[in-house]
Amino acid sequence: QLVESGGGLVQAGGSLRLSCTASGRILSGNAMAWFRQAPGKEREFVAGISWAGRTIYYADSVKGRFTISRDNAKNTVYLQMNNLKPEDTAVYYCAADSSNRVATIPQPYDYWGQGTQVTVSS
After folding, report:
1. What is the rounded CA–CA span in Å between residue 99 and residue 91?
2. How would you write the pLDDT of the chain (122 residues) with one tens digit per residue?
3. DSSP state of 116
C-alpha cells in the first residue's frame, strides 16, 4: 500500500513537499515515481528514482524546480516542489515498480497510491 500526503493549496512561487509512505514489501528494491493528472488530461510522469537512488529522471517541465528523494529506512519517497506554477495543479500519485526500471510511463508500475491534490493559485 502506498499513501501520499503533503498536498494542499499554495500560491504561485510557493513550495510543497509531498511524501509517499509504503509498506516495506512494496518499497524494497522498487523504483519509485511521482505522476500527476490534471482534469481532462492524461496521467503524466513527473519524477522517478531507482532503489539505490543512482538513477533519477525528471520531466522537462519540472527540472530545476522539483527534487525527488527517498529514505529507504523510513519506507518513504519525497517530492520537494519549489517555485510552483498554476500549471502544476493536479492530483499527484506515487507509484512503485518492482523491476526497478524508473519508467517514464505509467504502465510498468505495479502499485499506486490514492493521490493527493496540489492546487497552485495565480
Report:
1. 25
2. 899 999 999 999 999 999 999 976 777 889 999 999 999 999 999 999 999 999 999 999 999 999 999 999 999 999 999 999 999 999 999 999 999 999 999 999 999 999 999 999 99
3. E
114 CB contacts (<8 Å, ≥6 apart)?
2, 3, 4, 93
Ramachandran area for residue 27 (φ above 0: left; ψ -120 to 50: alpha; else beta): alpha
Tell me the backbone φ, ψ of residue 74, rounded to 5 degrees: -100, 5
CA distance 43 to 40: 10
Q: Closest by alpha carbon to 79, among 2, 26, 1, 20?
A: 20
